[in-house]
Amino acid sequence: MTDQALKTTPLNAAHRALGARMVGFGGYDMPVQYEGVLAEHRWTREHAGLFDVSHMGQCKITGGDATAQFERFVPGDYEILKAGKQKYSLLLNKDGGIIDDLMAGRPDHDGLFVVVNAGNKDEDFTFWEANLEGDAKLTVLDRALIAIQGPEAAEVMAAHEPILAEMGFMECARLMLFGVDCYVSRSGYTGEDGYEISVPADQAERVWNTLLEDARVKPIGLGARDSLRLEAGLPLHGHDIDPTTSPVEGALTFALSKSRKERADFNGADRILKELADGAARVRIGLIVKEGAPAREGAEIADMDGNVIGKITSGGPSPTLGKNIAMGFVPPAFSALGADLKVIVRGKTAAAEVVTMPFVAQRYYRKPKTV
Amino acid sequence: MKFTKDHEWVSLDGDIATVGISKHAADALGDVVFVEVPEVGKTVAKGASFAVVESVKAASDVYAPVSGEVVEANDALSTAPETVNSAPQADGWFAKIKVSDASELDALMDQAAYDAFLATL
């Protein structure tokens, strides 16, 4: 039974044919699992997982000085971004809070290709529509987005297009793949090597099924996508970061380009530069919960005296580590690696320790350096 | 064995009721990764949350199918929560409750009624 209020991706029928359990997410009817979250999580870490992420927003920002205008809304350096590269960035509000996090790249010589979160895309697109001036314009793309992630993803894709094996992490391209016009980037949301492939909506099911013919590839639902990204230490907008969170609080200062910090010309630069110099009121940390139940979103974090000092924003069991892991926010004084803290789950207090993120080592493909 | 609409089961032996979650509930939850069973000696009321079962994705309350006092908890689930998936209506039991009013079971569904109820979901 489909909830009438939910939108569908071009792969909805394919998910149902595979027997997926469907749930509402970001306004879409999406597969939460096929055979089971744990099995899908492990398959992705060991082989190659195929994800429908078509609920995410895809657009191009082109024309005139589009890239320069786009740059005004984010703290990254896009004007000097080379063709074939992409960067993670943050759409900031006037207070330096994160309206959304996004990937923007130059897969071709025609402006930027941008991917934003499903739950924020309408707001993001409306914002750009309202703020792009002159010849710069937003074009929302009616495309599916398919991610293939895992240590065997590169071999699977190379069988279809050998050149994909030569791409490095965070490189992107526009090319013919499966006989259709695709945008491909070597990136993802699992901590594994892999690709995100944007395909025309009417070709999505054919591409999806073609990839599933490979025995190394299995479909993976949003349940495992969430546990994979949690292990990879990657924040989920709307949970770990939101419009009240600054990039410094969110531990996302790598998204602040050096030249932009020097120019101090992005939204919220005053607050963000001050936080960089003096520290923020709170900071996102990783925790291992050493006993008891998983600490999930909303659970309180306390110091060793029992004083509540923060909250968990994501958490759950790590299938790879066999431990309960979590992200949350605490004042910087409590954020040192190895610091002992407590989490409070359903009234019970459990020991936790601040650990480095990612919880599970990322395995992105870095190209060998050439002289 | 009798069932509630919240997918708990209860099996009465004398005045001791063994309770757990149904196979349907265990299948719907998916991989169980943590179970919080009630403490022995705790008094539970029919319909109130008395245990928690967690999958990778979420924590779910388990409601007491009968009122009474917890006389035994299945502590084996703390180290082997997956038993709830493999044997939900046997070794995956949550607790044994000394029932205070056995007539509460009269309102619960037998297997045939529960199967019919599942068919309506």
Biggest pleated sheet of chain A:
6 strands, mixed
Radius of gyration of chain A: 21 Å
Tell me the fraction of residues in β-strands of chain A, as a range: 25-35%
Please provide the count of β strands of chain B: 9
Q: What would you call the structural class of chain A?
A: alpha+beta
CATH class category of chain B:
Mainly Beta
CATH class of the largest domain in chain A: Alpha Beta
The topology string of helices and strands of chain B comes to EEEHEEEEEHHEH
Secondary structure: helix percent of chain A: 10-25%
Question: Which secondary-structure class do the elements of chain B indicate?
Answer: alpha+beta
User: What order do the strands of the largest sheet of chain A run in, or round the barrel if closed?
Assistant: 10-11-12-9-3-13
Q: What is the global morphology of chain A?
A: globular
Q: Main beta sheet of chain B: strand number and arrangement?
A: 6 strands, antiparallel
* Distance N to C terminus of chain B: 20 Å
How large, in whole angstroms, is the Cα Rg of chain B?
13 Å
Describe the oligomeric state of these chains in a short phrase: heterodimer
CATH architecture of chain B: Beta Barrel
Bulk shape of chain B: globular
Average pLDDT over all residues of chain B? 96
> How do the strands of the widest beta sheet of chain B line up side by side?
1-2-3-9-8-5
Protein name (chain B): Glycine cleavage system H protein
Keywords (chain B): Lipoyl
Cofactor (chain B): (R)-lipoate
Organism (chain B): Brevundimonas intermedia
